[in-house]
Each structure stands twice: as structure tokens, then as C-alpha cells.
């Protein structure tokens, strides 16, 4: 058991699986009490049980304003005001500028952008007295664009800009709240692996990250390690930063 976020209260969205689950487990191992939110109640409650008394599960649609109020109320009632928000929940879909429908575009922006706006807004209100850290999951798609992920790239671009605006505002008004964005390339999660064809080499992708210097796909644990650093006081002077975790893929072109 570590001490890097000892005594802190964290909210992690989309924590029933993938990166969010690893974030929640690692933050708990390092001393935080963790509120796990997700639409998947069964899996979310299982993660909370795995952590034990230091965890609480709340069902949560991140694009629903009332749900955010409920999460904040449940957090305050069980643990107190949060110190950490990890805006992690998101959706991913393939679609270029030519074949993305307006409905698909609006759904992507509603969840990936509106949901993060509501998270930042509610976190600032809850943290402004004592300070805290907001970690927003973005993507290298926000920085370089991915032709076959039009709406997703736009939504993650909105997250990056929202992060900068939130960090700037909090510093301007004197709140001790930091806000940073994390920009992975590929992460080996059920959401991303589902996009690969059945013979797409998922097993090979899952193992090459540790051995192949050209690997693009990292593990959820790799991302969780960065999230932990940004959530902890170790990163007290890191604010408004865009943290790439992509094995230099952005420098080589993300397509």
C-alpha cells in the first residue's frame, strides 16, 4: 500500500472497466477513497467491492446534469468534498468527415465534451475552498487529428481546450485547482480492441508494448500511473498541461 494520495477523495468516471478501473484501483492502493461512477452497475459495484470500504459506486450518465449533482452529493455524504476528479468515461466510434452522421456527431460531443464540461464545472464548485486536481482524458486525436475518427477527434479537441480554459480560470481567480489533460494514442481496452477485426492481432498488440520500441498501444496501467502522478501533490506545479502518453507516435504522425 502506497501513500501518494493518502487521505484524498477521488471521483473516477467510467471506472467499471478499462482505464477508469485501473485508475480507481491504483488511487485506492495509494491511499485515496474512491467514488466509482459508470452506467454499468454490475461491473462498477464489483470494482467497489474489490476496493472495499474506501470505495463507493454511483450510477452515472456523465452527460446528465442531475446525475453530476447526485454524484457530488453522494461523495460529500460518504467521504467529504472531493480532492480529485478523473474525467475518464467516453465513447469511441469510427467515422470520417464524409460518413459521420449529424446524430453520431451530436452523441459523441454530448458524452465526450458536454460530460467533461459538467464534470469540470461541478468539480470546481466542490474544490474551490480546499483545492484539488482535475485530470481529463483526451487523446492524440485532439492534437493531430485522425481521419477516420472525425467526431471523436473533435470531442477530444474540445476536452483539451476545456482543460486549458479551466486551468487558466482557476489560476486567475486564485483557486488552488489544477487541471491537466492526458493524451494517449492507443490503449488496450475492450473499447479499442472491439474496433479490431477478429484476426486483427489483438493478442500480439497486447504483448508487444513491453518489447517493441515501435509499439503504439499502451496498457491501462500505463495511463493509470500518469493519472496518479497528476492527481498527487507530486505534480503541484503541473497545470494546464497536455500530457502525451504515446511512445512518440505523435511526432511520427498519428494516422
From TrEMBL:
Keywords: Oxidoreductase. Belongs to the short-chain dehydrogenases/reductases (SDR) family. Transmembrane segments: none annotated. PANTHER family: DEHYDROGENASES, SHORT CHAIN (PTHR24321), OXIDOREDUCTASE UCPA (PTHR24321:SF15). It comes from the Bacteria. It comes from Pandoraea terrae. The keyword Oxidoreductase applies. The keyword Oxidoreductase applies. PROSITE patterns: ADH_SHORT. This is Short-chain dehydrogenase.
Amino acid at each position: 500500500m502506497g501513500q501518494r494520495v493518502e487521505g484524498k477523495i477521488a471521483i473516477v468516471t467510467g471506472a467499471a472497466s478499462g482505464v477508469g478501473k485501473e485508475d480507481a484501483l491504483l488511487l485506492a492502493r495509494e491511499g485515496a477513497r474512491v467514488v466509482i461512477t459508470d452506467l454499468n452497475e454490475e461491473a462498477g459495484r464489483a470494482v467497489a467491492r474489490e476496493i472495499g470500504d474506501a470505495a463507493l459506486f454511483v450510477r452515472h450518465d456523465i452527460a446528465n446534469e442531475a446525475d453530476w449533482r447526485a454524484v457530488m452529493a453522494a461523495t460529500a455524504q460518504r467521504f467529504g468534498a472531493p480532492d480529485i476528479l478523473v474525467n475518464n468515461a467516453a465513447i469511441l466510434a469510427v467515422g470520417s468527415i464524409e460518413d459521420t452522421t449529424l446524430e453520431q456527431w451530436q452523441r459523441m460531443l454530448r458524452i465526450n465534451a458536454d460530460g467533461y464540461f459538467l464534470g469540470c464545472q461541478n468539480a470546481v464548485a466542490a474544490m474551490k475552498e480546499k483545492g484539488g486536481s482535475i485530470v481529463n482524458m483526451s487523446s492524440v486525436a485532439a492534437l493531430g487529428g485522425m481521419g477516420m475518427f472525425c467526431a471523436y477527434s473533435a470531442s477530444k479537441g474540445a476536452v483539451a481546450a476545456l482543460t486549458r480554459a479551466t486551468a487558466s480560470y482557476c489560476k486567475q481567480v486564485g483557486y488552488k485547482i489544477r487541471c491537466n489533460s492526458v493524451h494517449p494514442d492507443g490503449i488496450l481496452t475492450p473499447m479499442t480492441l472491439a474496433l479490431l477485426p477478429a484476426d486483427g492481432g489483438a493478442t500480439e498488440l497486447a504483448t508487444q508494448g513491453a518489447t517493441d520500441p515501435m509499439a503504439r498501444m499502451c496498457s491501462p496501467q500505463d495511463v493509470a500511473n500518469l493519472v496518479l502522478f497528476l492527481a498527487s501533490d507530486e505534480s503541484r506545479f503541473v497545470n494546464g498541461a497536455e500530457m502525451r502518453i504515446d511512445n512518440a507516435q505523435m511526432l511520427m504522425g498519428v494516422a
